[in-house]
Amino acid sequence: MEIEVEGLRKRYGPVNALDGVSFTVRAGMVTGFVGPNGAGKSTTMRIVLGLDAADGGRALVGGRSYRSLRDPLRAVGAMLDASSAHPGRRGRDHLRWIAHSAGLPARRLDEVLAIVGLSESAAKRRVGGYSLGMRQRLGIAAALLGDPEVLMLDEPVNGLDPEGIVWIRGLLKSLAAEGRAVLVSSHLMGELEGTADRLVVIGRGRIIADTSVPELLEAASGGRVALRTSAPADAMAVLSRAGGTVASVGADALTVSGLDAQSTVAALSAGRVPFSEISAHRATLEEAYMELTRDATEFHAQAGGVA
Amino acid sequence: MSAVMFRQVRAEWTKLRSVRRWTLTLLAAVVVTVLVSMLGASGGQVSHIGGPDDQPPMGPEGKRVRDAFQFVHQEMRGDGSVTAHLASLTSKVDGVKPTEAEPWAKAGIMVKGSTKPGASFVALLATHGHGTRLQHDFLHDKSVRSGSWLRLTRSGSTFTAYISDDGTNWTKAGSVKARSMPETAQVGVYAASPLHTEMERRFGSTSISDVPAHAVGVFDHVTVGAGSGAGVGAGSGAGVGAGSGAWTKTKVGEGPVLPPGEGPPSQVQDGSSITDGTITVTGSGEIGPLPRGMDLVQRSMQGVLVGLLVMVAVGALYMTSEFRHGLVRTTFTTAPRRGGMLAAKSLVLGATVFVLSAVGLVIAFPLAQSRMRASGFKPPGFPKWSLTDPAVLRAIVGSALLVALVAVLALAFGAIFRHSAAAIAVVLAIVLVPQILASALPLGASRLLLSVTPAAGFAVQQTGKSYSFAPEPCMPDDGCYPLAPWTSLLVPGLYLAVALLLAWWALRRRDA
């Protein structure tokens, strides 16, 4: 089962929240859905779930609209907002009413509580007393109740402690390995590093990139040179004159674009600027993401990754 | 119920009972209903004077009635008819305002089983302010066309009324069956007038004063004829004294008695005179049902109003918490049919509130009744009510239904406004404010208010039956509501139907 999103449009008054968003979430892999806050991630997810009505385009789950699914919770499990449980209700009761509503057996409660690692005593406490991390686990438990083929989690890493982050990465990977389609959103690319097989990057209501992780890194690194120098000011002046674009990334670290490693060394030597450690730059996901969201349309044309 | 609907009802029931604050509040509503009902019943003190002899007469339908008037009559055996021309009807009201008249001052012709108060009767009469009417057996009244010539014809137990403007051309005005008219009946002319009630209502205070009033009827061409309706007028010739015998003057029953020492004795005296074919009857009194008096059933249920306040809050929160906590997204992803959620919530809340309110009242009613009996509200002066009386059961079931309707109304408004304070405020404005205003506004306005707002539903608590022809002040503060008990629930029901439609539309249309 896949999620197919095609040409989604949504306006909130004067704000164009979604402006023709299209992508596909495939089964058997974790798809990261990244973009700055307000880029349209949550709106897209709400439209997929039939909660918000799109002004244009369509969103299908397994070829059908969510609202026409016969047994929606067995098809799609979603966590939109970790705090969307009544604070006066016990965690277990929160799961219980969902199970009743979806016609799921009571034994699923214990199963999902075990999967997300909420103890029996925690489940008996009222949600109002939960930490953000516990609420995330409860929300994920609710999403897993129906043993769905598609999972959609909005910012699940938010509020988790380091141990929790490791846990959720493992969980997402194992869910995908079982053949499920997993869509995970985040506003921090780094959170998805090493987890997502594929990335859909969204900015200002448009898809900027829809690509695999190595491709994205490749594109983002794009022929830049990293170097260390004890005289960064001199180096910047010399390299600029030679035709490069220089960015400072640390006290004594620079990246240069527009010049290859050889020309950089030549320029620095000619200018008698001391340097050490010169290498071709390897972008991190974080940097790639910064690059994308800084200059969205240009990259869009280069990568040609939009489906 | 479809399987999906059943699941949703079950889920909503789990939601309602799993928030401890709501459970406690719902139970508190029951406790408050009981306590306030008891407190409300504790006020007031009566000491009953007199014994069972003072009981009002028993009517032919087994209900106590009022039966007092001035009667000029003779005997009529079997079928026959009585005819009279009502030359004039005057209402005389004691007191400072000579221009005042009592609209229910009446004079007319009557066939009555005997002169004993409470005996079956049929009368065709003119009133000062309510036209010509055909009445029988105390509880039945019908407005008919007007005319100064009146005729009643008996055939077995069927009585047919005729009206004429000239004594020659008669039109049938209606026919009734008397409940228990003996073969030999008393027929003749009569006059009666209830006490004249002057009521002044200002903001916050009501003053009611009753003054004696009399009706003076002047009749001529009074004839009593034998035979079943045939040849009346030819019957016993013209003039008084015809028919089976001479006229007898009787003052039937006890007229209205004012508390001793209140005002000077009436200037007008009851009586009758017969001169040259003209019969003048001056009478006071009332023929009809007993006044409703204090509604002891309603007074035992004053906690309903306070319980309702609490239930309204729970009803609103039950819906608005969905929006406040983003829960509605989980709800709608679990079951995408939004109307189903509204229906399930309404059903669960309505049923829960109904059961809890009914339980509260079943506990409160006997307690409140025993407190009232301790204060003197007991037989023979006051009826004894128990839970098994149909009227009491109706009041309890109806009240619980009313509270349930209003709680679901709050839920519907919660879905429309998505804001508990707004939902609660609107519901209280249309349910409670009319109740408060009703006791302050002029009578007409307050009756209107209690007919068109959901507050009309409180009429379901009243056990006294209202008769339009029995003049008595019907004030909301005395527990007299304009609408009939069950009918009155239609008003909040209608509000609820509209609110649910709006809520359904809002839920479907808006993004969750």
Q: Greatest contact pair?
A: A-B, 34 and 27 residues
Question: Given the helix and strand composition of chain A, which structural class is it?
Answer: alpha/beta
Order of helices and strands of chain B: HHEEEEEEEEEEEEEEEEEEHHHHHHHHH
What's the story with the biggest beta sheet of chain B?
7 strands, antiparallel
Which strand-content bin applies to the residues of chain B? 25-35%
- Computed over alpha carbons, the radius of gyration of chain A is 23 Å
Instruction: State the domain count of chain B.
Output: 2
Low-confidence parts of chain B lasting 5 or more residues at pLDDT below 50? 228-242
Q: What CATH architecture of the largest domain in chain A would you give? A: 3-Layer(aba) Sandwich
Oligomer: heterodimer
> How do the strands of the widest beta sheet of chain A line up side by side?
5-6-7-3-8-9
| Relative strand content of chain A | 25-35%
The total beta strand count of chain B reads: 18
